[in-house]
């Protein structure tokens, strides 16, 4: 059975790749028979430093990616994936936490109808669209409900995009339960399989992070309605104060942490 794991690869790794020896070594450990063979970088362009076997999944992160050079890059990335041998799905992500951009559900539905939905006719049945991925809070849930309600049945996405982060003070057990509840809610609400493109514990306790990560990954692997998922995230620096240092997949030199080695199948 193909791995559901997806590598979240920050753009700074592409920027720093040539000048970061440990990062180059880390990329050298990635194998086409390992658990990571698909990649997202929140961008329209493929990270050229990753091995050719990686299937790239471009993202229309904001409305800016629907115009000019960014739109050309989206289409170029789709074309490159379509032309690869085989019949793998070519997955395109849309609007990342749009309720925080902010982008209204109505404006997003209009852009979906005008720019994104037509990609299906342009590229054929291998092209799969992921709904906007909202934060796992009431505002995110309401935004997605409003957006989906504005689309006709034939216009709806192939997959529902999902994010989930625990509360910083949650135990691993409570975080796991909350993640399961949120993801099941989305599947039941919209009747579509999910792609969980960001998930992590924000606990500062390493033991909590490890337990959450291992148990939620095992659980997601067992759910037929979860198509793919990605732990947040491969980057050398901590993204912001929300993200837990204990959940870093890389150290500041670009080497896998203990959690990262497990995630990448290196340990």
Number of strands: 9
Count of helical stretches: 9
What's the oligomerization state? single chain
Q: Rg to the nearest angstrom?
A: 18 Å
Main structural class? alpha/beta
Question: How much β-strand is present in the residues?
Answer: 15-25%
Poorly predicted residue ranges = none
Look at the structure and give the mean pLDDT. 97
Provide the succession of SSEs. EHHEEEHEHHEHEHEHEH
Q: How many strands, what sense, and barrel or not for the largest sheet?
A: 3 strands, parallel
Distance between the termini: 20 Å
Large-scale geometry: globular
Q: How are strands sequenced across the largest beta sheet? A: 1-2-3
What is the helical fraction, as a range of percent? 25-40%
What does this structure look like?
- The protein has 267 residues and is α/β, with parallel strands linked by helices.
- 38% of the residues lie in helices and 16% in strands.
- The chain has nine helices and nine strands.
- The strands form three sheets. It has a three-stranded parallel sheet with strand order 1-2-3, with no helix packed on it. A three-stranded parallel sheet has the order 4-5-6.
- The radius of gyration is 18 Å and the shape is globular.
- This is Asl1-like glycosyl hydrolase catalytic domain-containing protein.
